[in-house]
Specification:
The protein is of the alpha+beta class. It has two domains: 1-18 and 219-372, Poly(a)-polymerase, middle domain (Orthogonal Bundle); 25-215, Beta Polymerase, domain 2 (2-Layer Sandwich), CATH 3.30.460. The chain has 13 helices and eleven strands. The strands form three sheets. Strands 2, 3, 4, 5, 6, 7 and 8 form a seven-stranded mixed sheet that branches. A two-stranded antiparallel ribbon has the order 1-11. The longest helix has 30 residues, at 27-56.
Length: 389
């Protein structure tokens, strides 16, 4: 039997040819996106200060708060497999106090929010020579930097008192708090804020049609972090690996969303020590079994994360079954045919899957059994002496 564990897991040596190393964003790309985020924030701060000064007076202009969310927050971001059309994205939420929604015309407030943001970002794109702004997205402003990268800016209104707490997190003891927050997120422009104080009803997401809907992105962030804390880092690795598979087999969309994949995989996840390949197979099984039904959001039982049509669900289940079968086939192989197995796995998982034959290891069935965590023995309660009389 063969183990492809070392073909998947990340290593300390970035040059090692492994799936997750190859899916990792390159330093240049990270710097590009972080710099773009900084410029986007500065442009929006200046624009909203100017607009709110006219609304509240020169002495009380409001500068928005920002918080990076999505795959950057979960640490599950991957390089695209098919580029174009796929791109690397950064989601950076922009927050204003809810005062703007409480007026007589909330629809006008949402329109105003998008108008100010769109104009500021269009000017920034022209100044920086970036590709373009995409205002077709219902729930965000999209800044397309180039053919590989974009920044999405969803617009939120947060309860006024929480907006001030959020702001104080950045301004009070700025040197210490900011340095600590920066170190925690690898020099990203972030700051600490206790999101546990904010309920879903405290945060409203603006939509271009003028509707505001309750949406707290930190509900998802909190769930993802808690799941990894409980299950271990292999869960995050498996999330990234199954997302890489999705990007390979659905290059033009039509596959499950990243968050739905994460929820399906987490629901059945059991750590398999030293066997990232078996964990990937188990993830494929979870997707196959769960994709045809509803996918309940763990942070809100009212939300179904499965937005696919019936025919799309069937196709995803079929593709997941094919991945299961391919992994099983390769596991049963011999070292003499490793190059063939790696090529077969690259067909399913994409060009980022390892081609390094030296990373494949031959193992015994005994090692496979012991890779799985043993379930604790259940000892029945003592009921007295049960010896024969």
């Amino acid at each position: 039997m063969l183990s492809f564990h070392r073909c998947i897991v990340p290593t300390d040596e970035f040059a090692d040819d492994t799936y997750l190393n190859n899916l990792e964003l390159r330093t240049r790309q990270k710097e590009l996106l972080r710099n773009a985020r900084h410029l986007v924030r500065e442009a929006l701060r200046a624009a909203f200060k100017k607009e709110t000064a006219a609304f509240f007076g020169e002495e009380k202009p409001i500068s928005p708060n920002f918080f990076t969310q999505g795959s950057w927050g979960y640490k599950t971001i991957n390089r695209p497999t098919h580029c174009p059309p796929q791109q690397t994205d950064m989601d950076d939420g922009c927050y204003l106090p809810i005062t703007f929604v409480r007026g007589q015309n909330p629809k006008r407030a949402a329109t105003w929010f998008f108008d100010v943001a769109d104009k500021a970002l269009e000017a920034l794109v022209a100044l920086q020579g970036w590709e373009r702004c995409d205002s077709s997205k219902e729930t965000c402003c999209r800044v397309i930097i180039d053919g590989e990268n974009h920044v999405d800016v969803p617009l939120y209104a947060i309860r006024d008192e929480q907006f001030l707490v959020m702001k104080r997190s950045l301004t009070e003891d700025r040197a210490g708090v900011f340095r600590e927050a920066v170190a925690a997120v690898s020099e990203e422009d972030e700051y600490t804020f206790d999101w546990s104080m904010v309920t879903e009803e405290d945060v409203l997401l603006a939509k271009r049609n003028g509707v505001w809907e309750p949406s707290n992105p930190m509900d998802v962030m909190g769930w993802a972090r808690s799941a990894v804390e409980q299950a271990g880092s292999q869960l995050r690795d498996t999330w990234r690996a199954i997302k890489g598979w999705r990007d390979q087999v659905f290059p033009n969309g039509g596959g499950p969303s990243s968050i739905s994949l994460m929820v399906m995989v987490e629901a059945d996840f059991e750590g398999i020590e030293g066997r990232a390949d078996l964990a990937l197979r188990a993830a494929a099984k979870s997707v196959r079994e769960r994709i045809t039904g509803s996918i309940e959001a763990p942070w809100d039982k009212r939300e179904d994360l499965n937005r696919l049509s019936p025919s799309e669900r069937v196709l995803v289940a079929q593709k997941a079954k094919e991945l299961e079968g391919e992994l099983d086939y390769c596991f049963q192989g011999t070292l003499g045919n490793v190059a063939q197995y790696l090529q077969r796995l690259r067909t399913h998982c994409g060009k980022h899957f390892s081609e390094d034959k030296s990373r494949v290891k031959e193992i015994s069935p005994h090692e496979v059994v012991h890779a799985y965590s043993a379930a604790p023995a259940v000892i029945p309660p003592f009921r007295g002496d049960n010896r024969s009389a």
